[in-house]
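User: Predict the structure for this protein chain, please.
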Amino acid sequence: MIRVGILGAGNIAEKMALTLRLMKQRGDDVALYAVAARDQARAEAFAARFGFEKAYGSYEEMLCDDSVQLVYVATPHSHHAEHMKLCISHGKNVLCEKAFTANAKQAKEVIALAREKGVLVAEAIWPRYMPSRKMVDDIIASGEIGEVKMVTSNLSYTISHKERIAKPELAGGALLDVGVYALNFALSVLGSEGIKAIDGTAVLTDLGVDAQESFSLTYDDGRMASMMSGIYARTDRRGMVYGTKGFIEVDNVNNPAMISVYKQEKDFADPAVYQVPEQLTGFEYEVEACIRAMENGWLECPEMPHEETIRMMEIMDKLREKFGVHYPFED
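Assistant: Here is the predicted structure, written as structure tokens:
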């Protein structure tokens, strides 16, 4: 039985709490053990709502509990590195909500510390762990759409009013919150090696974070990816993979439910449609991956290796440099 603690008690923590409760109900070896918030009353209310055994009014207090085996970090991007380091220093395995950190420097520091301490640390970018990821890979490997040449992806919601999005001191903006999913889709298909050019342009808010952007990757072999993200309007959220014999449409790069395959031999009509397996919330797959890794003594999840997490952060660093977005806590 893996005893899970949640660090932070906001909206994303609630989704993980619901996931853990549903996993437990179906018989998984997980225990809703502890939650930590910045005040005791909030922690106790969260614990009572979802059925956690323990409630702590400080993060440090929960991490001193030897029974906690895996900590889900659910705080703003700006605090991920600090809170992961705190967990790791207490010998805790960590699953941290995306974006993993605010920048690549922080990511490297966290991963180095986790390896030094011999604990698991994983990025909770949920599409990497979902069955849909392998489904897309298998379609490409089958040769049905021929040789992949281009990928497009987008994700945008009306979230400009949210504090974690609006404030530079919280590492706000579209890229780290939703653009990361568009980027993740492209890299999942095309890989992160052989990128020769990273380009992009953005519109900034009055506070200096990126409100909406378009960006692209160009590879040495001529493959390309074009992406878009924003905080002002909801987009169709689609991911497209274009090959020499057809193309794949994924209905939502954030949480795929349906994959359609269009072939040139059918004049791109009558697509083959694949439904993604039913899920609890979608978060269960990343928890399952962490449990497997812990059981095997791995320090990273093969679904989202450390090297890939760092590369994603490096690309987003480069994009923010082009956009002119700098967080106040960065050197």
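Residues 306-323 form the longest helix (18 residues).
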